[in-house]
Design goal:
Keywords: Cytoplasm. The chain has 156 residues and is mainly α. It has three domains: 3-46, no CATH class; 52-92; 97-155. It contains nine helices and no strands. Helix 4 (52-67) packs across helix 5 (71-80), helix 4 (52-67) packs across helix 6 and helix 7 (97-114) crosses helix 8. The longest helix has 18 residues, at 97-114. The chain is elongated and about 65 Å long.
Length: 156
């Protein structure tokens, strides 16, 4: 591997956490051959610049806090990046359960308030359900909270 390619990929990995597939793609973009790519990845792992578990943890924390994604969407995106199930599990453990529930509740209430003018209860439930599942929250959680919110609403 050329010295300038080595410097470029080192900078690429120092800038933020990367997974193996991102680094592999970047090395191919830089014109490396397959043996050079594999050697480069091995070298980055050796010096500690490339660590998939560390990447999964940072990714899960970031996507949850910044984009308020649910566990399902984070898991799906990590699988697309070819992260192992072990690393995904460890990455998801970074998400605090209480904070997760609080954000889930906040997003659900926000969506309900946005859709106040919706007359049909079925359409309302459907729109909220689709939104929350698209954000990556577990289907069972969404259904349970929706049913509880509808029951509470009927009490008044």
């Amino acid at each position: 591997m050329l010295l300038q390619t080595k410097a470029a990929i080192t900078h690429y990995c120092e800038y933020q956490e990367r997974c193996h597939s991102e680094v592999r793609n970047k090395l191919y973009e830089l014109g490396c051959t397959t043996p050079e790519v594999e050697d480069g990845i091995a070298g980055l792992i050796e010096i500690g610049l490339l660590n998939e578990e560390r990447f999964a943890r940072a990714y899960a924390r970031g996507k949850f806090r910044m984009k308020q994604w649910g566990r399902e969407k984070i898991k799906q995106q990590l699988k697309l990046k070819k992260i192992s199930d072990y690393c995904i599990k460890n990455g998801l453990s970074e998400i605090d359960a209480e904070e997760y529930d609080r954000i889930f509740q906040k997003l659900m209430e926000k969506k309900v308030n946005e859709l106040k003018s919706e007359r049909s209860e079925m359409v309302l439930k459907s729109k909220i359900y689709r939104y929350m599942v698209q954000k990556g929250y577990e289907r069972d959680m969404v259904i349970d909270l929706l049913n509880n919110m509808i029951k509470e609403k009927k009490k008044y």
